[in-house]
Every structure is written in C-alpha cells, then in structure tokens.
Specification:
Mean pLDDT: 81
Shape: elongated
Distance between the termini: 103 Å
Helix content: 40-55%
Number of helices: 14
Strand content: 5-15%
Strand order of the largest sheet: 7-6-8-9-10-12-13
Largest sheet: 7 strands, mixed
Structural class: alpha/beta
Radius of gyration: 34 Å
CATH superfamily of the largest domain: Response regulator
Oligomer: single chain
CATH class of the largest domain: Alpha Beta
Length: about 400
Amino acid sequence: MVITASGPHDEGITRGRYQGKNAIVRRRVSEHSARILMEPKKVRKRRATKSANIYDVGKRAGVSVFTVSAVINKTGQASVAMQRRVEAAVRELNYRPNLLARSFAKQKTHLLGMIVTDISNPFFPLVVRGAEDTAQKAGYSILLCNSDNQKEKEENYLDLLVSKRVDGILLTVASGRVNPSVCRMLKDAKVPVVLVMRIAPDLQCDAVVTDDHRGAFEGVSHLARIGHRRIAFVSGPLEVSNGASRWKGYRKALQAHGLTYDPTLTIQGDYRIESGYRAGLAILPRRPDAVFVANYLMTVGLMQAADEMGMSCPEDYALASFDDYPWLRYFRPRLTTIELPKYDLGVRSTEILLARISGKQSKPMIERLSPQLCVRESCGFIRTVEGSRTHIERPDFVNPASDMPRS
C-alpha cells in the first residue's frame, strides 16, 4: 500500500504499520537472545569477554600476578608444577603480553634500529643476518632502514628510530659529515650507537670495522709479488673512512714494493656498478698490468667495460677485488678477492651494542676485524719475457700476506 494523503485515518494506518515493524524487531531480538542462552557456557563466555590479561591468567592458574610475570619473563623462581599451571592458563586463554605496557614499565622496547647505506649491495645482507641472529638470541628485534647513502634520509631515519624509543642503533654512516643537530639529538636521547663498517669522527661512539688498510695492502702486495708493475686502482669514495683506508693501503703497498705511483692509473668510484664501468673505460686503455678494485659491485662494472673493449682476464689484465661471495668461485676466471668477515661484523657490532644497553661504561672503542686474501685465477697473469714467450700461471690457494708493515 502506498500512502499518498495525510488525514486522521491515514495517520492511524501509518502508526499501525510502524507498530507492526517494532513488533517484528522485538521478536527477532528475542529469538537472538534465546539462541545465545542455548549456547554452551564456554562459547557465551568467549563472546562476552575481551582479550585475557595477566590477572585472568593468575586467576585461572591460581597464582599471583607476580608469579605469572616471573614465569613469563623467566625471572625469579617458581616450582615446575606452578610453571606448568601458568603455561597451561596462558594457552587456554590465548594470552599475549602487552609489549607496549612492558616497555613503559621497564623503560625498554627490546627494539634495535639498524641503518645501512645500500641494501641492494650484496655486502649488507650477511651483516644484517649476523646482527639479527645476535639480537634475537638476546630477545631483541631489529628495525632495518636503508639510507641510500644520503644524509637527509639518514637523518630522517635516526629521528624516526629515536621517536620509536629503540634501545640502541647500529649505523653505517652515509658519506659526509654528521649534522651537529643529529649528534645533539642522539646525545640527549641517550641512545647507544655502534658504527658499523665506517667511522665518523663527529660521533663519539663505538665502532666495528674491517681492517681495510691491511686488506688493500695485502691485495696489492700480492699482485706486486707475482710480477705486476703497473697496478691500477679503482677506489671507493675518499670522504668515507673505509674508502680512505683502502686508498692508503694501496699507496703503502706500492711504496713497500718499490713501485711508482701513477695518478693516471687511479680513479675514484662510489661503490656502485656504474662507477666501476666508467673507471674501466678510463683505465683499461692505458694497459695496466693489473687492476685492484675496492669493492665487488665496481668490479662487475669494470669487467663489463673490459668485455665491451674485447679485453680478457687474465690474458690482457690481472684483476683482484675487495670482498668475496660464494658465487665468485664459479666465475671464469675465478676472482682473486679480499674476503671481509661480513657475518662477524654484524655479530660483534650487536654484541657491543647490547653491552652498552645493559649499562657497560667505558671509553668508545674501535674494533677491527681481519680480512683474508683468497687467491684464484684472475690474478695469475704473470708476464716473464723469455725471448718472445709469455708464461701464464694460475694459482688456486688462500695466501694471507705476511709482509704488512707495522705502524
């Protein structure tokens, strides 16, 4: 029926219609209530209650909340029977501790921040893995950030991590000076920081790095010992501590073996493939005996340039590179490398950070991890002129150099 008029009679019809609807609604509510009453008590209780809290667990287990807390956090002592009762109550109630409340009570979030410069660089995954494994054993989780080697992104992430109340920060600094305001923020927040792989003079904190000076010295010295005289070098950015250390190791090795430094055989890269490619196009036409490259990605770029120029390794140039990876053993030729202890770098950095979080007081320290020279075919290009004959030797062994001068 469609109502088109609004008289007394029509008003009565309308009122009756709405009363009918209310009756239907009341009947449906009654039916729903009846269904709930017919349900088992456990189901009704599950519908009515919110998430269980620590008091519910204590009540179910018949113990105090202090005992529940001691069992869950593995602090204090409780009998085996009591532990089992608490654990059973936790399972039955599907209890989840309130981590936010716990962090406020203990003034700890059990979170560590970690900032790396380039997550696409194959160097970093093992570093992060070492840090994560160590943090997890201690009950911590890691928030991972990628700065893309940009100061602005680095500063934004540091501000974010401090606002997230992380207990400590593992930091691989981007190129350039650290903003004084960032130094003040970290100092005011009293957040322990451990520098990973790079040292920043602006930050007075612990650091764990690889001995890059020694690694470069060993790599270049090996090339010199097997007969190479014109050794080119593709360096990393010299404003970064490890880039500068590798440069100094290269120069020291030339000096130690009586070789002349030729500035036309050195070029600065940025640890990325494209810079290695440009360096290859610039250096290889000058026909060096050997090339030492400061990281793996730039080595890939240099080999691409060599391939485009029709040059072969080790027939036309010898090659050695910083950092080693399992797949390099299957390259042809297999690459001679300076292996860096990536996993150990993450482990030691995190161990030192956790010690600082626990309250260890001492002066900031710098720990240097030793690299290892892995000799393979790419450096075996030894030219010994005997008349018109060229001899090519391909050693395959690990040979840590022992003639590093002591400072």
